[in-house]
């Protein structure tokens, strides 16, 4: 298809013109529908629905997941995610302020941190955390398994959240600091009273996305070797799946994730639209 | 007698760009001084050097005898005595008009909430928008926002006020309200240094007018002298352009 418009064809009276662009489009659309329906029919006819249902959607296996699916697994997923999120929010803000600081070593430290923790797979961080007690004898992450999970998620999340905050802080117009300073506020006071509150409002939508990403990453807690009361959704689904040699529990876990992530995604979109309107 | 503002041999470079090239001038207490001149002449930079929003490259600035360019001086303390009004208002968008006027009183002057609110309401009345105390900046017109900004500066009890093109970002029909507030302030004896393009205002209110061009003060005198009977060719050319834009 060329991106140049075809030369206007003089309408031939008498209706003997070849297909008009609009007619062509209608035919092309019809062909696409036919292909789609054909694919759908093919799937319906050739898939082995009985076997699929047996392996991925077996009601009695799904029933075994309850009530622990919610009382233990979802609850733990939320503990790890919210804990990790708070950790990453605070550390991320500190890193962002350091990154924008006039003190050069602060900038170096922050940049180094962000580069390293954004550049490494989150899984690697979790694996390293399990070795912490070996590296630092006598050291234990406070909060036990929860603490370890939150630490891992927080360390990684902070690097991303720092960049989100940096963008937010930079989006606050320079005149705001000037107005605050000209009223006699110190540099620190101006940040706390004027700049940071505005930056936080600006970053609410991307931060919601960060939270969703973190919630999904909480599945990596699996690699801390958690068990029993500490399992979160992914591990919970996986364990049950092994136990019954059936994938249904994993599907159930997946649905439970979606139950949380889809509404959050929509919330983020709504907040973004509101942000645009408020400008 | 100490001058309200004293500027000695002030230079300001932005990289290779010399914006101020040796400014000497004084403003006496109670005077209203308007600074006029073409854009890029260094007017705003001069104003911003007075409260050190720009750090001068060379030279001295004294405010009520305190050398603000001295590295040992507590600049926050000096700024408390200097109110500043910006072209873009720079109200805090996450606070209501009332909170905008209260916040620095509370955080900087450590006034209690009640007292700060009382002072804030008095000053909002003073600029004629007492009824807009609960509105957020986005809900106000440009003229109303600028008057909140003036009230915010006045609430700190400044000894002098700097105005950086306070009406340049306003729709023409809103300029009058802001100028009226400034005129009233001038009548009350406030020391004011005003960068402006409002020749009518300068002529009527200013005790003195400075014409700047190319980073220097070209002419300095009473409004009638500088605007009514300019001595320098550069001043004449500028005024002709401003007063008769159609040529």
TrEMBL record, chain A:
Q: Indicate the segments forming the ABC transmembrane type-1 domain, all copies.
A: 74-268
The record's Gene Ontology biological-process terms are: amino acid transport
Sorted keywords for this record are: Amino-acid transport, Cell membrane, Membrane, Transmembrane, Transmembrane helix, Transport
Q: Where in the cell is it found?
A: Cell membrane
Ribosomal protein among the record's keywords? no
Q: Which SUPFAM superfamilies match?
A: MetI-like
One cellular component GO annotation, for this chain's record? ATP-binding cassette (ABC) transporter complex
Q: Any transmembrane segments, and where?
A: 30-49, 78-100, 112-136, 250-269
Q: From what superkingdom does this record's organism come?
A: Bacteria
Q: What is this protein called?
A: Amino acid ABC transporter permease
TrEMBL record, chain B:
Instruction: Cite the SMART domains for this sequence.
Output: AAA (SM00382)
Name the Gene3D superfamilies on file: P-loop containing nucleotide triphosphate hydrolases
Q: Does the keyword RNA-binding apply?
A: no
Instruction: Give an example GO cellular component term for this record.
Output: plasma membrane
Q: Look up the EC number in the record and give it.
A: 7.4.2.1
SUPFAM superfamilies per the UniProt record, alphabetical: P-loop containing nucleoside triphosphate hydrolases
List the subcellular locations.
Cell membrane
Q: Which domain of life is it from?
A: Bacteria
Q: What sequence ranges are listed for the domain ABC transporter?
A: 5-239
- Homology family: Belongs to the ABC transporter superfamily.
The name of this protein is ABC-type polar-amino-acid transporter
